[in-house]
User: Fold this.
Amino acid sequence: MNRIVSSLLTAGLLIGMGLTVPAFAQTDASKSPSPSASKEKKTVAIPFAGKLSAIDKTAMSITLEGKTKKRTILIAPETKIMKAGKPATLEDAVVGEEVGGQVIKNGGGLEEAVSLRLGPKPEAEPRSKRRAKEEASPKEK
Assistant:
């Protein structure tokens, strides 16, 4: 008798603490989705840089020549393409030029460009020149 009371008390304490006891565990997994299933995967943009070795305008892709291997990146219609700090298209790309940007992995495991910079990275203005420009131009309110 003491054993039964002890078991019931232990089960009650475990349930009270939020732990489940196998005898009381839910058997239908469809009733309670797991926390990981309800969360969507976040896509993280990964930076890339290299030398442009091929352009395939039909397949909308570029190939980069790396130190150890070649890398093919798909260009989507949403890809933001810039050259010399101005909007550009894939038509403006030249084999042999430096490129960079950010990619994400698409559903098929291929890399898709989110952004693509053609040519060398534009140099940033020194902070002192930017401040002088800001002070010289009237601010709109």
About this structure: The first strand starts at residue 46 and ends at 56. The CA atoms of residues 51 and 65 lie 5 Å apart. The mean pLDDT is 78. The chain is about 20% helix and 35% strand.
